[in-house]
Amino acid sequence: MEITLTFGIAVGGIFLSLALFKIRHRIRQFLKAFLLWTNKHFVYPPLLRRHRYLGPWSRADVLLQSVYFAMNVLCLIYKVSSISKAGLRAANLSLINLIPLLSGPSFNVLADLLGISLSKFRRFHRLAGVMSFVLLAFHVITVVVSRTSFSLHVPENLWGLIGGSSLCLLMLSLPLLRELSYEVFIRTHQALAVLAAYSIWRHLVSQPLLPRIYIYIFAGICLLTFLLQYGFIIWRNKAVGRSFPRASITHMNDTVKIRLTLSRPLKVKAGQHIGLWTPVSFWSFWQSHPFVVTSWSEGEQSALDLFIEPRQGFTQKLLEYSKSNRPPRLALFSGPHGTSAPVGEYETVLMVASGFGIAAQLSYLRQLIYGYNACKTRTRRVHLVWQLETLDIGIAVESLLNDALADDTLDEGYILSISIYIQSGKADRVPFGRRAIVYSGTADLTTILQEEAEGKYIKRVQEETEERGGMLVMVSGTDQLRDQLRDEVRGYLDDKVSLWELEYQPA
Ligand SMILES: Cc1cc2nc3c(=O)[nH]c(=O)nc-3n(C[C@H](O)[C@H](O)[C@H](O)COP(=O)(O)OP(=O)(O)OC[C@H]3O[C@@H](n4cnc5c(N)ncnc54)[C@H](O)[C@@H]3O)c2cc1C
């Protein structure tokens, strides 16, 4: 490049940077306004409400999915000269869409690498899976239409058929298997995915490097994430001279509590979860389950607390084990996984949980109380609203809640309120543990949200001039509760209110 041109670009760059720096506040304002507009018109309004297998989909979800679909179609038809060429292109595109699906042994690691939540990654996984399947179906149709014979004695054809069938089985068997047994579903899914990848490679073995390279890329990424995941697991579970982690499993009112004593101290952000493996029965040898860490510390923790709802499988075995009063059990874990909400940036934090969803909120409660006492947070009001069917879970959680409130030296209930609503309760406005008040019935979320959004419980020195801070509504509850809150929060977007759905949502 001409030296004078380089000089010109450098001078122009400096001028542009200075000009942008000068208007940086306007740019920030514009971005904020744009984000608000997007939230109002695309992210919060639902286009499709929740159904058994579909939804809820917001306008943004549908738009993004359509763009993704359109990009694939464009790549498929752009300057394609014949239907058989389009078929070949569809096969390549199908492979490219498969790469992110097959890039790691577990969702957690991939979601962590991308810095997105598990639920978002799951959605993306499903979407890419459907896209890949549709493209593969197109490839098969074009092959069938354009070829006179499809002999299965030709290895290329045979492996193509096996690969296609395994992808087909992957798609069709899933909802059914998942309902039957999660473990059978996940292992079948993984086995079929490996079979599909291997068959596709065999199908392409006599082809030029270009389509095969996608398989090599996927294998490379998969190996890397596999090594990363298991490397971290080994490192975190065994410190030199220390024993493996031990799980002390106890129960109360048919709930399970675990204290996991670690081999090596670990920093866990509020809201993060671990994948727990502990051999409490024969089948549990092959299983690892995600649980949110309910304890929190600003530094590293030497023991992690978990609060668990006994379901039908592994968690039921945990309950049985806890009742047999046996010594702490060997336990291994992966993680910590997942994202953490930036709670400290908000003036008000409204935490809404139903049932065991409280597990996902406890670490945030601790973090907020610590942050307030240490003047490390902007938060001036925290309200935990907990909806229960009976007080049984409440009693089981009381000690965890009190632990979370151990540093609570806050003023007379203005900063922190805990409201517990018991569906089948009779007593109203009864104090419970430290700080909490028990009400009977269902929480009136409309009024609670309105009062908190108005800042009714925040003491202000200069009522008129002070600018209101934002409010974060964090929810870990039933589908119905989440849908209701999403609708309610929509009405307060202009008041800087936003919703954060936590990674664990109880059934
Ligand atoms: C990020 C995250 C954090 C969680 N945190 C907690 C928590 O703190 N406390 C708590 O009680 N529960 C938590 N759960 C739910 C908990 O992982 C499941 O209830 C548990 O795995 C069920 O095990 P089971 O064998 O007894 O289930 P089953 O009775 O066989 O099935 C019950 C339900 O759990 C689902 N499930 C089963 N195994 C898994 C698995 N390995 N991964 C994901 N889902 C599974 C099944 O699809 C089914 O819907 C969390 C889930 C996720 C995704």
Automatic annotation (TrEMBL):
UniProt GO MF annotations: ferric-chelate reductase activity
FAD-binding FR-type domain segment(s): 227-343
Transmembrane segments: 6-23, 127-146, 158-177, 213-235
GO cellular component terms attached to this protein's record: plasma membrane
UniProt membrane topology term: Multi-pass membrane protein
GO BP, one annotated term: intracellular iron ion homeostasis
Record key words, sorted: Electron transport, Ion transport, Membrane, Oxidoreductase, Transmembrane, Transmembrane helix, Transport
Classification via Gene3D superfamilies: Nucleotide-binding domain of ferredoxin-NADP reductase (FNR) module
Keyword Translocase found: no
Location of the protein in the cell: Membrane
Family affiliation: Belongs to the ferric reductase (FRE) family.
PANTHER family: FAD-BINDING 8 DOMAIN-CONTAINING PROTEIN-RELATED (PTHR32361:SF26), FERRIC/CUPRIC REDUCTASE TRANSMEMBRANE COMPONENT (PTHR32361)
Protein name (database record): FAD-binding FR-type domain-containing protein
Phylogenetic lineage: Eukaryota, Fungi, Dikarya, Ascomycota, Pezizomycotina
